[in-house]
Amino acid sequence: MSIIQLSNISKIYNPDTVPVRALNHVNLNIDKGEFTAIVGPSGCGKTTLLNTIGGLDHPTEGKVIIDHTDITALQSKALINFRLHNIGFVFQDYSLLPVLTARENTEFIMQLQNRSKKEYRQRAEELLKEVGLGDKMDFFPSKLSGGQQQRVAVARALAPKPKFVLADEPTANLDSKSTNDLLDIMLKLNKEEHITFLFSTHDQRVIDKARRIVVLEDGNIVKDEVLTVSY
Ligand code: ADP
Ligand code: ADP
Question: Which residue ranges does UniProt annotate as crossing the membrane (predicted)?
Fold first, then answer.
């Protein structure tokens, strides 16, 4: 059973005025442990696809089933709760809370999960060490580079032990070195902790590291390629 199952997903923005068909009858299954890139030119529907999987956007047609739960059938409060516990998000602009330190940003969602302080402190520290920020845990985002901020975002996304992580153009604002570092960390987490990553990108350096490449064109999946990569 796939962890993500999209069946016949279509998304039409502004159906009553100037309709834009962003996704066109998309079917896609993602299994646990994948490291998959959604690729294609700007406007092909990558963000809409990830937002639909993450329950941030409601499809016009079709179902999104996450580990046996049809999230398209959930009411908003249930959906928010489901997201919080099951899906990790990484955004291209990092989206850290500026008034919280790296540690506090990482702890934040776990606090909403009613975990004990001891437990969330320890988990945040472990995760920040894992992304190479053990010496910067008490830094505010403004004191961190873009690459470091994005690594905090990865630690934050993993904190609630989600079923998978969605990352929309995670390296769009990073230089080559930070892009490489981030990808290496994501790959390590995938390999060692079996974290499932689904990310969008149009950066060839990022595409080269993926193990499965799903190509979108005008809201249609035109290619879906599983690669054999050795490390
Ligand atoms: P990508 O992430 O590949 O750049 P998007 O999913 O952002 O693609 O966009 C797919 C299509 O949907 C584009 O034509 C875009 O202009 C359109 N679109 C995205 N969001 C909206 C919106 N909120 N309202 C209207 N059209 C939108
Ligand atoms: P990306 O390239 O990362 O998909 P975009 O710049 O296409 O990002 O879109 C950024 C935001 O603008 C998204 O929230 C998207 O929903 C919205 N958007 C994109 N295209 C349109 C559009 N034609 N009309 C209204 N909103 C849009």
Answer: none
